[in-house]
Amino acid sequence: MANLPALNLTLSMVIFGTIGLFAVEGGLPPFATVFWRCIFASLFLAAWCFGRGYLRLRDLSPRLILMAAVGGICNIGSSVALFAAYASTTIATATIIYHMQPFFVVLIGAMFLKETIRRHELLWMVLAFVGMGLATGFVGQNVPASPGWALGVGLSLLAALLYAIGTILGKKLGGQRPEVTTLIQAVIAAVLLLPVPEVTQPVPMASWKWLVCLGVIHTGIAYTLMFRALPKLSTPTIGVLAFVFPLVAIVVDWLFYQQPIGPFQAIGMGLIMLGTLGVQLGWGLRMQKDKRKGTAAT
Q: How many degrees, rounded to 5, is the angle at CA 224 between CA 253 and CA 152?
């Protein structure tokens, strides 16, 4: 059971890794996609929370509700920016660039939460970052130098920063049920997006199944798993596990859109996994303990 928070976060990242496929296949503009995603997430989570008695007034904290609301605003911006980036770059490229966010998470954690990053965790995280650079496919290939590509990069980085802020806020929501946190954020997002003209456009029948899945699976279920895990994990662990997201996105892009995976990308994916395992299994820390034991024995 000790590894359950890590398992929950990993599963949520796997689900998030397929979000590009559902967003692209939904065929709607970014604001409309996020709006309908939040609508279906709100309906699913409201039914879930009411059915389980999670919305009793005496159990709700105004402070935690406010923090969840602020985090929800960050998540709106992050989702819209990332969905918009898909139109300028591939799903894999936008997602990988977006995963500069672990470094934003660690930087914010160190600056504002006074969290300490241990040496071996930093080593594995740097290794994962190198893997991310290789996995973009830019090494050894020509990088598209178009204005649209640059816009996609900028939007992905903006999404990363907003996601990192939401993640840090999520670590402070341990006193509130994750289902309630996600519901609050989905409702606030839907209300804030309602005045946007894009959300009133007709939705093709073929888009509804993708939008429902974005709301129920990629928001209701995935965010609940994520918020359940965040308060119980260290910031470096969260940062490295987040690399599972782009790893899955690369595979999805290859399977569904025939985006080729070159040798550099394959090496990069392997390094991402190695960095994740290094942090989760405590490699380096155990070696240090073994050295201490050996010194004591002599």
A: 35
Residue 261 backbone phi and psi in degrees, to 5: -110, 110
Q: Nearest Cα to 245, choosing from 235, 253, 255? A: 253
Question: Which is it for the CA torsion 74, 138, 259, 125, positive or negative?
Answer: negative
Tens digits of residue pLDDT in 269-293: 788 778 777 766 667 655 445 444 4
Alpha helix stretches (DSSP H) within the chain: 4-16, 19-26, 30-52, 62-86, 91-98, 101-112, 119-135, 147-170, 178-193, 208-215, 222-229, 235-241, 244-257, 263-280, 285-297
Contacts of 134 (CB under 8 A, 6+ apart): 264, 265, 267, 268, 271
Express each pLDDT in 86-143 by its tens digit: 888 888 878 887 877 767 777 777 777 777 777 777 888 788 878 777 776 655 555 5
Tell me how crowded residue 129 is: count the other CB atoms within 10 A of its CB.
20
* pTM of full prediction above 0.70: yes
Q: Are 138 and 271 in contact (CB under 8 A)?
A: no
Q: Which of 90, 102, 88, 91 is nearest to 155 (CA)?
A: 88
> For residue 201, is it left (φ>0), alpha (ψ between -120 and 50) or beta?
beta
- Long-range CB contact pairs, 268-271, < 8 A, 24+: 268/130, 268/131, 268/132, 268/133, 268/134, 268/135, 268/136, 269/131, 269/135, 270/131, 271/127, 271/128, 271/130, 271/131, 271/134
Separation between Cα atoms, residue 100 and residue 103, nearest integer Å: 6
